[in-house]
Amino acid sequence: MLTQPSPSLRRISLLLLSAALLGVPVSLRADDALPGVNDPAPVVEQGENDEGAVGKRGRITPFNGAALPEGEVPALQSPEEARKADAEKLTPSSGVNVLERMGAELPALPQEKPFAGKADDAYGAFQRGYYLTAMELALPRAQLGDAAAQTLVAEIFSQGLGVARNRKDAAFWYGQAANSGDPAAMFKYALLLMEGRDVPRDKKKSEELMKKAADLGNSSAQFNYGQLLVADMPGEKGLKAALPYYEKSAEQGIADAQYALSQIYLNVDGIDENKRVTARDWLLRAARAGFDTAQLDLAIWLVDGVGGDRNLDEGFKWMLRAARGGNVVAQNKLSHLYVNAIGTRPDPVEAAKWYVLSRRAGLKDLSLEDFYLGLPEDQQKAALSAANKYRAS
C-alpha cells in the first residue's frame, strides 16, 4: 500500500539529486539550447524542397503522394452486398488465445502450489472496500501485537476510511507496527518522525527506521534512504553510497528511483560501462510511469542523441506528452520543436499556443516572444484562442 513517495518528497528529491550531480541540471531551462532548436534557420531533418519549405518525410500516406500497391484497395460493394457479407461474418467466435496470436508453442506453466497459509480476512475486507468490517477484524489482532493488523488499523485511521480521520491514532498504530517489525509501517513512521508530525521529531531514529525498512525490502524506504545519504554526503560520494538503494527501489518500480538511476549512470564518473549504457532505459521506464520530468528529459535526450541514438519523432512525442501533462519547460521546448519542424511538421499556431501557455506560467523566452510577435494577427488570435481553450479543458 505504501509505495509511492509524496509529491513534496518528489520535489525535494529532484533538488537533492540535481545538487548532488555537481551542477548537472535535472532538466534544461528555457534558455538551454537544444542543438538546432534555437538556431535562426529552420532545421531540416531529412530533406528540403526547392522552395526551402521544411517537410517531414518517410510517412507513406495518401497525403504525401505515395500510392498503395496494386490490388491493395478492396473493391467497392453495394449496400445490399455489404449487409449480406456482414451477416455471414457475425457468427459467434471461440476467440483467439495468446499462443495462437504468437504462433509458437510455449512450455507448460509449472503447477501452481496450493496456498497453505491462513487468509487474512481483515485485509480481504479492506481490499473490497468494507472498511468498518476490516477495522472490526483487525483491531483485536492489533491490540494483541499483530504487526500486519496494526499497520492496517493505522492506515484506516490515517485515511479516514469508514471512520473519522485521526492522525494521532494513526501515528500511534504506525509506531506499534514499526516496533513489531512491519517494513511498511517502519517507512511510514520514519516519515512522521522526520517531519515531527503527530509525534516528537527524532531525526536519528527516523534515519535508523528508514534504513531498517530499506534493508527489509520496502521500495519507498530504499529510495528515501538513498535520498538521506545524498543529503548527508553531497557530491559523488553520497550518490555512490545511495546507488545500491536506488537500484533496488528502481527494480521494484519506483519511478523516482528509476529517474535517479538514469542521471547517476550518465553523469557520475566511475560508473560501470555496462550500467552506463542502460541510463536511457531507466529514464524510459520512469517516463512511462508518468513522471513528467523524466518525460521532458527523455525527449531532450532523444532529440540531442544523449545516451543513445537521436530519434526526432520519438523525442517530439515525449515532449508533447510532458507538455500536455502540464510541465512548463516541456511546453516551452515543444514550441521550439514546432517552430523548427523537429520531429513534426512546422505549425506556427501550435508553436505560439504552447509558448503562450508557458509564458502564462512565468517562463520567459525572448526568442519565442520575437517569433510570436512576428506572426500575422490572425495566427496570433488563433494561438490565443487555442491556449484559452486548452486551459479551460
UniProtKB/TrEMBL annotation:
Name recorded for this polypeptide: Enhanced entry protein
Organism: Pararhizobium polonicum
Region (Disordered): 39-72
Gene3D superfamilies xref list: Tetratricopeptide repeat domain
UniProtKB keywords: Signal
InterPro entries attached to this UniProt entry: Sel1-like, Sel1_AlgK, TPR-like_helical_dom_sf
SUPFAM superfamilies named in the record: HCP-like
Residues in the signal sequence: 1-30
